[in-house]
Design goal:
The protein has 276 residues and is an alpha/beta fold. Helix content is 37%, strand content 23%. A seven-stranded mixed beta sheet has the order 1-2-3-4-5-6-7. A five-stranded mixed beta sheet has the order 8-9-10-11-12, with helices on one face. Bound molecules: zinc ion. Zinc ion (ZN) binds next to loops.
Length: 276
């Protein structure tokens, strides 16, 4: 695990050791963490390290969205406000009841790259929610959280205009094909979200997976998303079959996915949204 100092007052882990990337914004009187990854001992160390280095305490954990690789470290922040969008909260409740069963969690633990990463896992839910936007003001520093949808309906970004840093969550997979196969994935909302990210005064974008970047990977991803959805729209209006359209969409050049099978499922989901 390597802790990167993104700039003064912002830290992150993006080397994949915590699965989903995690970030800490150090504000004048408190530390705001974003996402909790999927490696409990490392997240504990991350929190302790930042608290020691800054002599400040964690007060808030923001959850960008409901996927396990972004929330399975929540227990390290049980004493904090754990804040997420209503949509993400509902999706977490659904997952807790249906997917995060003791049997499934045992299976995940067995298959984890580091089998000790989920030792003692306890599912900890958000204790505060917001509909579309939330703001923290601490002295002269502001942190803006906004739900856009895209990767999932609840997907939200965390932006600090003072530090010019945005944590984009899984709406941004830096230089790899994104996972967009979840039931609420929406390429149209995703395009709007990326356009919004690009319009903000940001020097460092922290993706949900992959390395920290400037605007370049966002511009590239936006161009790809627009190309694929335009192609789908055109072929639908020409009366082409789903099979033909997915075959053509698959040919549009982009980076490979991090996991096999992601691309076909994502393109199918996007096709369903574009069709309706
Ligand atoms: Zn995700």
């Amino acid at each position: 695990m390597s802790i990167e100092k993104v700039r003064e007052n912002v830290y992150a882990i993006t080397d994949g050791s915590t699965r989903g990337n995690v970030t800490a914004y150090v504000l004048p009187t408190q530390i705001v963490f974003v996402d909790s990854g999927m490696h409990i001992p490392m997240i504990k160390k991350f929190r302790e390290h930042i608290e020691q280095e800054t002599s400040k305490k964690a007060s808030i954990l923001f959850i960008t969205h409901e996927h396990g690789d972004h929330v399975f470290g929540n227990q390290i922040f049980e004493d904090c406000e754990i804040i997420t969008s209503d949509h993400t909260n509902e999706a977490m409740i659904h997952s807790k009841e249906n997917n995060w069963t003791p049997e499934n969690l045992e299976e995940w633990k067995k298959n984890a790259e580091d089998p000790s990463s989920l030792d003692g896992l306890k599912i900890v839910m958000a204790n505060k929610t917001f509909a579309d936007e939330y703001e923290i003001i601490d002295g002269d520093v502001k942190v803006i959280i906004k739900r856009t949808g895209g990767h999932t309906e609840g997907s939200s970004y965390v932006y600090c205009p003072n530090y010019k840093v945005m944590f984009a969550g899984d709406n941004l997979f830096n230089h790899s094909f994104p996972w967009g196969g979840t039931p609420t994935s929406d390429p149209v909302k995703w395009i709007k979200a990326i356009e919004e990210y690009l319009s903000l005064d940001v020097e460092h974008y922290i993706p949900g997976h992959g390395a920290i970047s400037d605007k370049e990977p966002l511009e590239e991803f936006l161009a790809y998303l627009e190309k694929v959805t335009d192609l789908m729209k055109n072929l639908i209006s020409e009366g082409k079959s789903e099979e033909e359209i997915l075959e053509e969409a698959d040919k549009v050049d982009y980076y490979p996915p991090r996991r096999e099978g992601w691309k076909a499922l994502t393109l199918k989901k996007w096709y369903d949204v574009v069709l309706n």
